[in-house]
Amino acid sequence: MTSIHDALFPVLALILIGFAIRRSQFLPDPFWPAAEKLTYFLLMPAMLIHNLAGKQINDLPWRELVLTVGGAVVASAVLVTLWWLANRHMGGPAFTSLFQGAVRFNTFVALALAENLYGRDGLLLAALGAGCMIVLVNVLCVSVFSLAVSNGTGVSLRQLAVDLTRNPLILGCVIGVGVNLLGLKLPVSVDGLLALVGKAAFPVGLMAVGAAYRTGNLGLHWQPVAVSSAVQFLCKPLIAWHLAGTLGLSGMAAGAALLLFSVPTAPSAYILSRQMGGDHDSMATIITVQTCLAFVTLPVTIWLLR
């Protein structure tokens, strides 16, 4: 139980620090958009390349793991899209927040929990599943932004392809996975640089989330918060559990997969929302509320896993 709170506390604390800094005006308001842009275009891609390059899968059940996490991501995306089609009173920008809140996952929390609960082997399994999810989730989210934030005018396949190929998070994933598949090894100096730059991604991104949060936002955005949280903490773990059992994934590998679907949404969702014209106010609210809820839901999930 302590490991869960130890992994979640830094996330929530950094959000609160960002909120306090913005409220106190310790830093000027123009700092935060600049920090968001730096995180989106440099810090997070560096973190992704460092984490995905050089992972050795050896004899791990990677096929079953990839199918489990990929299937659960797609199923959750279909679920929230069907809900939106049945509730079209919600605008496109607000739907992008709901979509990210239901589909994305907090890599930092998931990997920290996997290492605390299962050791290095569990961390490797979780990182393998996370690598697959990161690429798929970013493709889905960028596609949704291109389609839903078009004010009903639609978007060409060419424009969608451009959005995908220019997205720095997807580029970071592709480079990291490509280095891995080609059997290449990053030079020690380059890997060290990426690791150092990437370490700033989560602190800066989380503080930017806190800086964007406004008291009273929960009442304004209760519907995307409620729906995304229900999918994130209830539907996704159940779908992943069913797929793992169906595909024969068990033991530590199944536990690592389920952890990926039991954590709150990612802080990078806010950065993407700001950069691509989403409803960043509701996105910041979803991230903050889900991080708080995870203090209650994750201990239950871990207890069930054990």
What can be said about this structure in brief?
The protein has 306 residues and is mainly alpha-helical. It has helices at residues 2-24, 31-52, 62-86, 92-103, 107-148, 157-166, 168-181, 188-198, 201-212, 217-220, 222-247, 251-260, 268-275, 280-305.
Structure overview:
The protein has 306 residues and is mostly helical. The chain has a single domain (2-22, 43-305), classed as Up-down Bundle (Na+/H+ antiporter like fold), CATH 1.20.1530.20. It has 14 helices and no strands. Helix 2 (31-52) crosses helix 13. The mean pLDDT is 83.
Keywords:
306 residues, mainly alpha, Na+/H+ antiporter like fold
CATH top-level class:
Mainly Alpha
Taking all Cα atoms into account, the compactness measure Rg is: 18 Å
SSE order: HHHHHHHHHHHHHH
Question: How many domains comprise the coordinates?
Answer: 1
CATH topology tier name: Na+/H+ antiporter like fold
Total number of β-strand segments? 0
Overall body shape: globular
Multimerization status:
single chain
Specify the helix fraction band.
over 70%
Largest sheet: none
Tally of individual helices:
14
Q: What is the CA–CA distance across the termini?
A: 11 Å
Poorly predicted segments: none
Average predicted local confidence, pLDDT = 83
Strand content: under 5%
* SSE-based structural type: mainly alpha
Question: Which architecture does the CATH hierarchy give at level 2?
Answer: Up-down Bundle
Membrane topology: Multi-pass membrane protein
InterPro entries: Mem_transp_PIN-like, Na+/solute_symporter_sf
Main location: membrane
Keywords: Cell membrane, Membrane, Transmembrane, Transmembrane helix, Transport
